[in-house]
Design goal:
This protein is of the alpha+beta class. The chain contains 17 helices and 5 strands. The radius of gyration is 27 Å and the shape is globular. Keywords: Membrane, Transmembrane, Transmembrane helix.
Length: about 425
């Protein structure tokens, strides 16, 4: 992501130069003179300082500090803008802390490399992950973490039946009440404690760390190409989260994927039976889980595949890998849809999703538009935003086909395929 750092004065005196992962050697004197000339020319002709210079695949950021000192950072065009600004801030601050007002003609401060490397590795921790390898303990930690996450989602959607109702029944029996309270405390605290140590001592913590960074700012998706293949295991966690929300919140709205502006069409109507892994045909919940799983699969695998085929880049596997990785994280934004579109949520706010006759009136009411349909659209289009920005950032800057066009074509085709699948399944 970072290509070159140059520290010099606005009149061309070079103090420091460092290259990052580039095969071609940069002529420091020539580059320094060029950067100084570009900066001076822009200042003199336009009467304002230049802050950025953009090329086909790279972006050059300028930062002028006190005493005519100029910090020039060349980065990949896709790199997050805020991270570039933060790096310039930290590097310039460290420079002044270490060297102060030191100015000697011809002095090259080679000992500054250790400081720059430290700053960059702390800010872009992704660079260090390539040195790590997934071991047996990490795979075991991944399985345990997935189970714990599913368990907590189960607890969240079953607090009334799992916590309040049993406790109220045992109020008349102090011993049983205390024992059950201890069981509840263990059910909540022990998995959390295990998860804390897993994230502290295993490599899967980096998977969650990157997911947090990306969801905070989708433009960081470009860093996916710096990550090793074991980060693709985030796909497992993604599906566990999606499946758990879908089952335990009874979120069986097929329309949130095909026609998000008109949600509410349920496949079938028998939701009175609890979901059972042993007898999925006992109610329509099994059908909805199948449709929901296909939805997850199509967003995580099918949409990136269509996108990479449309672009036709030489490194299709690399683009497909990064797109799948980003899509598996972005789809967590759909968890909100699974909550506000779920049977449990709708029943809690006074609707009747298990009664086709009464629910038909609910869907047409103004209240339903605000408490169900409107939130569904927010979460769904938020997901599309994360997905679109993320996939666009993992795309090489120079492409034959517009990446934005490819993104919207792949999204639209995915929606069509989802709709066809749900209609075909409903027909069966």
């Amino acid at each position: 992501m970072i290509k070159h750092l140059l520290i010099l004065t606005t009149y061309g005196q070079i103090f420091y130069s460092q290259e990052f992962g580039t095969e071609e050697t940069v002529d420091v004197a020539l580059t320094g003179g060029l950067m100084s000339a570009i900066y001076s020319m822009a200042t003199e002709t336009q009467r304002e300082n230049i802050t950025e210079f953009e090329m086909m695949t790279s972006r050059i950021k300028f930062r002028e500090e006190e005493n005519d000192l100029l910090f020039v950072l060349t980065v990949d065009k896709r790199m997050d803008e805020k991270d570039v600004e933060d790096l310039l801030d930290m590097i310039s601050k460290r420079f002044f802390e270490k060297y102060g007002e030191l100015r000697v003609d011809g002095l090259i401060l080679s000992d500054f490399e250790e400081d720059v490397t430290e700053i960059i590795n702390n800010k872009l921790w992704y660079l260090e992950t390539s040195k790590r390898k997934f071991k047996f303990f990490d795979y075991l930690a991944l399985i345990v973490t997935s189970v714990i996450l599913g368990w907590y989602i189960y607890l969240i959607f079953n607090i009334p039946s799992f916590v309040w109702t049993p406790l109220l029944k045992k109020l008349a029996q102090p011993v049983d009440f205390v024992l059950y309270l201890l069981i509840l405390m263990a059910s909540f605290s022990l998995p959390g404690l295990a998860l804390y140590f897993i994230l502290k001592f295993s490599n899967i913590k980096d998977i969650f760390r990157f997911s947090k960074d990306y969801l905070t700012r989708p433009t960081r998706a470009s860093y996916a190409e710096l990550l090793p293949n074991y980060f693709l295991l985030s796909i497992v966690i993604s599906y566990v989260l999606y499946f758990s929300f879908m089952v335990f919140s009874k979120a069986y709205f097929s329309e949130i994927t095909a026609f998000p502006m008109y949600p509410g069409a349920l496949l079938g109507s028998d939701y009175s039976q609890p979901f059972s892994f042993y007898n999925m045909s006992s109610s329509d919940i099994g059908d909805q889980v199948l449709v929901g799983s296909f939805t997850w699969f199509s967003w995580v695998f099918l949409c990136p595949l269509i996108y990479s085929l449309i672009l036709g880049e030489k490194e299709k596997w690399k683009l497909l890998r990064n797109s799948i990785f980003i899509a598996s994280i972005a789809i967590t934004a759909l968890l909100g849809c699974l909550v506000v579109g779920g049977v449990i949520y709708l029943q809690a706010v006074g609707f009747h999703p298990t009664n086709p006759v009464l629910f038909a009136d609910d869907v047409s009411s103004l209240l339903y538009q605000f408490v169900a349909r409107f939130p569904l659209n927010i979460f769904f289009y938020g997901f599309l935003l994360f997905l679109g920005v993320g996939i666009n950032r993992v795309t090489p800057p120079k492409t034959k086909v517009s990446s934005l066009l490819a993104i919207w074509v792949s999204i639209y085709l995915t929606l069509i395929i989802q709709r066809l699948f749900s209609d075909l399944w409903a027909g069966n």
